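Sample A.
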Amino acid sequence: MNQQLDKEESQPPSGIIARLKKYFRNPFFIKTQTVAEVADFLKDAVDQNIIDKEAESIANKAIRLGDQNIIDKEAESIANKAIRLGSTTVKEIMVPKVDMVTVTVNEETNVIIDRIIDSGHSRYPVLGTERDEVAGILLAKDILPKIVNGNDNFEIGEMLRVPNIVPETKKADALLEEFKKDRSHLAIVIDEYGTISGLVTIEDILEELVGEIEDEHDVEEDDIIKISDGLYAADAKVELEVFVEFFKMSLDPMSIDAETLGGFIISFLGVLPKIGDEITIDGLTIIVSDADDRKINKVSIKVP
C-alpha cells in the first residue's frame, strides 16, 4: 500500500494547460471582478494543489492584460481556447498529406535546395524508399553552411533529426507539452494503419490559441472570390460548411463525409475529377478549374 502511495506521489504533475483547465472550470472564477479577487482564488488553488506556482504566474499575467487590470475579452478567449485544446485531436489541425512539402532520402541535392527555396519552410519530413517510411526531419539551417561553403554534394542522411511520429487521435495539448519538453517543432501524423496522414507543427497548435500566425512567406488569399455577376472562384480547400453558408445552400455539411469543398466534389463524382469536370447542386454549377493527379486545387462557381 505504501509503495502504491509513493508511486502516486512520485508521478510528475500534469501539464500547465491541464491544471488551468481544472481551475478555469471552477464556477467561482467567472464571478470574480477584480485582480485581488482572482489572485485570492489563484492562491487558494495553489494551496489545494489544483495548480502550481508556474500556472499561477501565467494566470496572473493573463488577468493583467486589460487596461483596467481585469480579465479582458482577448485573455478570456485564450483561456477558453486553452480548455478546448484538451479535446482537440491533431487530426483536426494537421496539414493534410497532400499539402505536405517533403523530400526523399535519395533525391539530388540541387532538387532539395530548390524545393527549400521555393517553399520557404524551415523543416521538411524526409521520406524513405519504402511506402510511408519517414527517414527523419531535415532542417533547412543544417544545409545552409554547406551551401555557403560551396559544397552542393552531400548526403542529407547525415543531417536528419529523429522524427516525432504521433497518431491522429493524440490530443493537441499533450503534443504541445511534448514539443516543449523535446524542444521540437514538428510531428508526423499517422492513421491507425500506420499510413502518413499529415503533419502538425507547434505553430498549428498555437494558432488554435491565439488565431492565425502569419509570417513573411504567407500569402493572404480569400477562399471565395467574386469574379463577376454570377461567377465566383474558390479554393478547393475551403471548408464545406463555410462554402454552404456563403452560398446559402440547403445542403447539410454534417451529412457529407467530407470536410472540404474539394473532398465533397470527389465524393459526389466518385472519382478524382479532371479540369473541366463539373457538378450541379442547389442551383450552383461547380466547375473544376485547376487540379493535378492527386487533388483539386481551384474551382469556379456559376450562380443563376
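Sample B, a different protein:
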Amino acid sequence: MRLLRPLRLLVPLIAVGAALVVFLVFGFLAYQAGTGGGGVGVVPGVCDAGLHTASRTVGPGGAAGATAATLTDEQRQNAATIIGVAKQKGAPPRAWLVALATAMQESTLRNINYGDRDSLGLFQQRPSQGWGTPAQVTDPVYSTTIFIDRLLQVPNWERLPVTVAAQTVQRSAFPNAYARWEGLAADLVAQLAGVSDPTGCGPDSATLPEGAARTAIQFALGEVGKPYVWGATGPNTYDCSGLMLRAFQAAGIDMPRVSRDQFKAGGHVPVKQAQAGDLLFYATDPRDPATIHHVMLYMGDGRVVEAPYSGEAVRIRPVPWRFAELVPLATRPGTTPNSAQP
C-alpha cells in the first residue's frame, strides 16, 4: 500500500493537467472558428481565395487543361455535362462550382477507368463504398447526379468554403486539394453557363459607393489573391493595415500605418451602421482600441475585403458579426473624429 501512495498523490495532478489540455484545445478551436484561421476554413460563408487565383497543379488525370483556355474538347464536354445535370436537378450555381472543382482535382475532368484502389470516373467514386457499379460511376450523368445528391444533403453546404464542401462529400486523403481548382471552376461556370459570380462573392455583387470609398474598395478588390506578409504594404504582398494604407492612398486619403492608429483616422459609427468604405476592426479587448490587431474594409452587403493572416491571401468574406473580438465601432476614413458610442 505504501508503494501506491505516491501514485494516489499524482492522480489529482494528472486530472488537472488533462482538464487544462482539453480547455486549451477547445479554446484554440473556438478562436479559429471565430477568426477564420487555420485548418480548412471553418468560418461559415467564407468567400474562397482560390476563386481569384489560377493554379497549374494537377490531379491523377495528367497535366492537360491547367486553365480554361487549355481544356480539351473532352474536358469541356464533361464540364458542360456536370453543369447541365446540376441545373436539371435545380442545384444553384455554387453547387456546379463545387462539382467542377472536385472533378478537376479527381480526374482533371476526364472520365478515366482507373484510380486509387477501385476509384473510377470523373469524380473517382468507389463502387466498394456505395457509389454505384463500375458502369454507373463511369457514366458522367450518373456520377454527377449522385455527387450533387450527396452534396445537397450536407447541412449548410452552401455556406461552406468550396474545398470543405467537396471534401465532406468525397472524404479525400487530401482535403485542401480542391481549393486549387476553384478559380478554374468559376471560369467554366461563367463561360459555359453565363453565370459570372457563382458564389455571390465577386466584386460586382456589392453595391459600391461613389467617391473615395468606391476608389478604395476597387483598389482592394484589385489586390485579391495576393499573399499576406506581415509588415508588407504592397504592391505584391500585404498585411491587413498595409492593404488599407494603399487602398485609401489610391482614393487620396492619407492613413496611418498600423491598424490601432487607423482606428483613429476618422469619425466613428456603431459597427452595425457601417457603410461601404468604413473600416472594421478586431481587438483582444473590443472596448480598448489599444488592443486592436486587425483591420478590414467594409464593402457593404455584409462583406469585407481583407488581408487576413500568414498563409492566406487577400480575400472577400462575410463579416463575422458575432465574433467576440469585433470592435463595436467602425471608422469612416477622412471624416472628422467624433466621440460616437457603440
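Observation for Sample B: DSSP finds ten helices and six strands in the chain.
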